[in-house]
Amino acid sequence: MRVFKFGGASVKDANSIKNVVNVLKEVGHENTLLVVSAMGKTTNAMEDVVNAYFKDKSKLSAAVHEVIQYHDSILHDLFPNDKHPVFASVKTLFDEVQGFLVWNKSPKYGFIYDQVVGYGELVSTTILSAYLNEIGITNQWLDVRTLIKTNDDYRDAIVNWEKTQLNVTEKIDKRKLNITQGFLGSDDNNFTTTLGREGSDYTAAILAYCLNAEEVTIWKDVPGVLNADPRYFEKTELLNNISYREAIELAFYGASVIHPKTLQPLQRKEIPLHVKSFINPRDKGTTVGKGIGIEPKVPCFIVKKNQVLMKLSSLDFSFIVEDSISELFKMLHDHQMKVDLIQNSAISFSVCVDNKFGKLEELLNLLKRRFKVVHHEGVSLYTIRHFDIEAITSLQKGKEILLEQRGKETVQLVVQ
C-alpha cells in the first residue's frame, strides 16, 4: 500500500482539488491512503477562532463565519447542486464547532485549541472524499481520531503506538482508496489531540509504519527537497537523493519540507519517502531512503525566524556546571521552550529557543532570580549544512552576528 500526503496548498480551492484528481489519475490511486491537511490557511483561521474565544468573544461569530464562507465557496464551485449531501455533512461539522464553543467549560487553551482547530482537516477530507465519489473515484473516508491514539498532551501529543497499530490493522482496508486527516489523533477519553504544527507529514509516516507501506509521497508546490527555502534564498538547487540520516539532520535544524518527527518511523522500517510536485507529478522529485549522504552534495541553508536568544551569566561569577545546567534545562522544558542551539563557557550559558507557546516572559522572570539575563527577541537562526567559505561569507554579509557555532559539517549563526 502507498501513502500520499496532500498539504493545505494542494487543496486550497476548487481548482486545486481538481488537480489532486489529476495527480491521482497520473500516478494511480489503487491501494492508496490519502492523508490530507486543512484547506489553504484554514488552520491559521481556526487559530483566530480560538484566540477570539479567549480574548474577544465579540469577534468570535465573525471569525467562525469567515471559515464557513471560505469552505462554502469551494463547495459551490465543486458541486453545482447545493442539495448534494456534502453540504449537510460540512454544516454538521461546523455546527459541532459552534456547539463546543457554547457548552465548553474548560479554561485550558491547549485543550480548546485541539477541539476546535482540528475541524479544518475534518472538513477538507469530507469535501475531497465527496468530490472523488461524485466523479466516480470510489473511496472510504476514515476519521483519523479512531486510528491514531495519543496521550493528552494537547497541541503536541505523543502517539500510543500499540493502540494505533491495532486500530490501523482493524479499520483500514488496503484494497481501497482511503482518505483521512493529517495532524489529528485522540486521547483515551476520545477528545481530539493534535501532533504539532505541520504534523500531517508525521501522520502519514505513522500510518505508513503501521501499514508496512511500500512508500510515502508528500505532494508539495515545490519540485522536491531544495537546498534552501526559496522564500528566503534566491538561488536554490534540487536535492535528488538524501539518506535518512542526512534528512533527519536537516529536519532537526528546521528544514521546512520535512517534519522532524516524520523520518523516524519510516527509517525504522526502511520505507522510502518521496517529496514531489503536485504541479508536475511525473517529475522525479526527491527520494529519502537508505543510502549514503546527499546528492548533489551542496551547502544546504536553513533559517528559523522569530527566535529568542538568551545569554545567562552567574551573578557571583561561580561556574555554570552540571547542576545549574540541569536546572536550566528543566526550566526550559517546564515552559515548553524548544531549544535550537546552546553554547556555554565557565560562567555563561547561551541558548536560542522557539517561544512557541508564549511563555517567555514567565521564564525570564524566573531566570532573573538566579542569573544575569540578556535576551534578544525576533532573531533569526541560520544553519548551513556542508558549508564552505563562500556559503558562510554570503550569509554573513550585511548582518549583525550575535552568536556563531561551528562544527565539522555544520555552522550556525544567530542574526539580529
Automatic annotation (TrEMBL):
Gene3D superfamilies: Acetylglutamate kinase-like (3.40.1160.10), Aspartokinase, catalytic domain (1.20.120.1320)
Reactions that this protein is recorded to catalyse: L-aspartate + ATP = 4-phospho-L-aspartate + ADP
The keyword Amino-acid biosynthesis belongs to this UniProt entry's keyword annotation: yes
EC number, UniProt record: 2.7.2.4
Any Pfam family: AA_kinase
Alphabetically ordered keywords of this record: Amino-acid biosynthesis, ATP-binding, Kinase, Nucleotide-binding, Transferase
Lineage top rank: taxon: Bacteria
Metabolic or biological pathway: Amino-acid biosynthesis; L-methionine biosynthesis via de novo pathway; L-homoserine from L-aspartate: step 1/3; Amino-acid biosynthesis; L-threonine biosynthesis; L-threonine from L-aspartate: step 1/5; Amino-acid biosynthesis; L-lysine biosynthesis via DAP pathway; (S)-tetrahydrodipicolinate from L-aspartate: step 1/4
Residue ranges of domain Aspartate/glutamate/uridylate kinase in the record: 2-277
GO MF annotation terms: aspartate kinase activity
Keyword flag ATP-binding: yes
Similarity annotation: Belongs to the aspartokinase family.
Name of the featured protein: Aspartokinase
Lineage: Bacteria, Pseudomonadati, Bacteroidota, Flavobacteriia, Flavobacteriales
